[in-house]
Amino acid sequence: MEGKKVVVVGAGPVGSLAALYASSRGAVVEVYELRDDLRNLDTTPLNFTKSINLALSERGINAIRSTGNPGLLDKILERTIPMHGRMIHIRSSGGALLQQSQAYDVHGRFQRSVDRGELNKVLLDHLDSLPNVKFFFQHKMTGADFRKKKAWFEVTDKNRATPSDRPQEIEVSFDFCIGADGAHSATRHHMMKFARMDYYQTYIDCLWCEFSMPATKEGGFAMPPTYLHIWPAGKFMFIALPNLDRNFVCTLFGPVDLFTKLENGTDEELVSTFDKYFPGVTTFIPPTELVAQFKRNPHLPLINIKCSPHHFGDSVVILGDAANAMVPFYGQGMNAGLESVRVLFSKLDETPDRAEALAKYSAERTEDAHVIADLALANYIEMRSSVTSPLYKLRKYIEERLDKYVPSWGWATQYARISFSNMRYSEVIKKSKSQKRILTTLLLTATGTGVVGSVAGILLLWTRFRHQKVFGLSWSGR
Amino acid sequence: MEGKKVVVVGAGPVGSLAALYASSRGAVVEVYELRDDLRNLDTTPLNFTKSINLALSERGINAIRSTGNPGLLDKILERTIPMHGRMIHIRSSGGALLQQSQAYDVHGRFQRSVDRGELNKVLLDHLDSLPNVKFFFQHKMTGADFRKKKAWFEVTDKNRATPSDRPQEIEVSFDFCIGADGAHSATRHHMMKFARMDYYQTYIDCLWCEFSMPATKEGGFAMPPTYLHIWPAGKFMFIALPNLDRNFVCTLFGPVDLFTKLENGTDEELVSTFDKYFPGVTTFIPPTELVAQFKRNPHLPLINIKCSPHHFGDSVVILGDAANAMVPFYGQGMNAGLESVRVLFSKLDETPDRAEALAKYSAERTEDAHVIADLALANYIEMRSSVTSPLYKLRKYIEERLDKYVPSWGWATQYARISFSNMRYSEVIKKSKSQKRILTTLLLTATGTGVVGSVAGILLLWTRFRHQKVFGLSWSGR
């Protein structure tokens, strides 16, 4: 990629990381971003269609680590808050508030809460120090010809635009274009005129609204900060992630019906709905504040996008939400996006012919992207209700004991493999399916026939399990 | 709609018909079209991404008839050529050329072959005579705000543009916008920023290339003109539709692999492939001409699009390919598009509140649109192979006899209901499923147990059928 002109569209975390990878391979990198530089803005730098606090885990960290800048990774990790598990807030049958913690991992691995803007800033500052990376903020992609390798951008930056009432449009040539411009990607839109792309988008029946839970008067966190707090309520839920300023960034998720009801109801109804379903929240977010935030902050939809391929020829590739927007319930959106940068460049490094490398990348990544999108959808059910079910807890318990006490078996929960490993998403799901079959046999046998059955089940488990290990080895050998 | 400003995007058959419907309701109509007026062009007036000859049948005719302009409908029908059935061209096991005709309908109803441009011209000429319809050709939609009811168009018409090297952009306000701008609809693209649209597009593994089969030296048709000619060849096929100039407009359909092989092969290989699979074609299209056309004419993909909803608020609706592009194998693409205009305006006429009317339209039409898109895909299999299967022929035979000789039973083939009725597509499929269950029982019984079984089967059919009739009545009463 030495000396090649690489145009990155989008200066979010995924686009910034892609620029860094391209730059370290000697490319001449230009980053075009629709919005202003978020570092120039005083208030909330991002538009309100992006969640502000995100969970950063192994895949995202590994993608940053693989740039070979330990200082950069440290700077990012310093800005994160470890979350060692979920804290489930429920009301007992007697009406008392209960808080139950569930550790994320039996080996102590954890999620990290991070402000998207903070992470983005660290990456942008780092890129600023590189001689071969240039930024063009407030440049809106208006067209692209991916055969001729040209793109057009409208300059909305008042300082750069010509003194006329009509916006200036510039033409940019490139060798390679990376579109990391989000779920409503202009790069993808123009790429679809060249690539024969299968494309699927759907809005799920769920809206979200962000809330801020302030620090206490003493300046401390309102709740223990080392957890992702969840108020599961069947069809809807409320969650809270700790932020460096000792606030919690909270989100209400619920079906469109619930939002419509709350929007049309009185302030008292909103507060009493919270008190009924999300016990304790109004102790930390005062009711007047809660109502004000619900009215002020937008109520936004959730989109699920799958497409294939993710590239066209040797000319363009789309990454992150542009290729694979998912619902936020597995905490994998940004991690998957960052990982896609690492996977892309590993293919480019391995295969000199770029068209061939992109075809390989696309084939592998679309498979993984579809898996994690489906898992994220399924996890909505888990978070808002299954977390409290005894069977769910039992399975988690057994799987974790197997993982902890018989590590040689290579057993692990799906959650751990998704969040704390770099195994391909599509392999995780294969392993989980196999484990689930085995465990279900055990649990059914145990429940159905008591002690005798349990012994038989364990024997059965053992027999099958040795088989599973063989599969496990053959998979990891891929 | 009296006095309201209606902007129609797209001046193809569907957009033109929508303009006519809006105009007859007193609207002030402006039609914006990306391309030049096809009546100004000497050569093939359409871009090469649209098939030139299409099958016009009841739904399309009914939509034109319902404008209440018998003269207009007559002008269009004069430009069509009746096709009473399929003519299947195959080679016997001995190698002889066989032509087998299959009538489309037991009641003599037929398809009509029509040049898309001719039909379009008649509609445009008619619209030209209306004082409340204005055309803006060579205007490309560049943006739209469907809340503020404004759209922007770039004027690519050299005569209208300002004398500058940069294209002029105009802002257009409207009360209601109708997007009939094809599979790659700009209206849909901008509407998706407002409506939470579920959207699905897929390219099937099939390309197509158009050929022209010239008239004979004596000026006659090379083959009987009252048929849609088909050369079914399992995974691919060749078809021919008669044109008014006594040519046949032909299309080769085949998987990408086949096209790649033919593109990379010699001229002789192309000709021998035709001779092997499409016997007789090279007698009518001389081999040199066949090769030249295959090289000159583009090899184009087929896209299948489903989306929901088809509208946003009271502001915009998308129709035809923009909402529901389908593969061409049921001959329903244009018919469904024209029908959607009729259905839309029937909802608008019934329901004074436009937002409510559009919501009703969208709910009903998306269901029907998805059904016909699926049927069109399935018919590819039927056309390229099932037409020659004995079981297919037997079923068609029995169904047609039931339709013809016991009309009171209300039996009809799916093909007849799709092509020769105005029954909702979704009801057609319900009826067909029910009929298929009954027939399968009969056929299986008959085949399995001979004469005794046949008698039993007929009795069973009779018993079930009385039941079916009840359903039939209740459905048609909807």
Automatic annotation (TrEMBL), chains A, B:
Gene Ontology molecular function = FAD binding; kynurenine 3-monooxygenase activity
Q: Note whether Mitochondrion occurs among the keywords.
A: yes
Q: What class of enzyme is it?
A: oxidoreductase
Query: Where in or outside the cell?
Result: Mitochondrion outer membrane
Where in the numbering of this chain does the FAD-binding domain appear? 5-371
Q: Which Pfam families match?
A: FAD_binding_3 (PF01494)
Function of the protein? Catalyzes the hydroxylation of L-kynurenine (L-Kyn) to form 3-hydroxy-L-kynurenine (L-3OHKyn). Required for synthesis of quinolinic acid.
Task: Give the protein's recorded name.
Answer: Kynurenine 3-monooxygenase
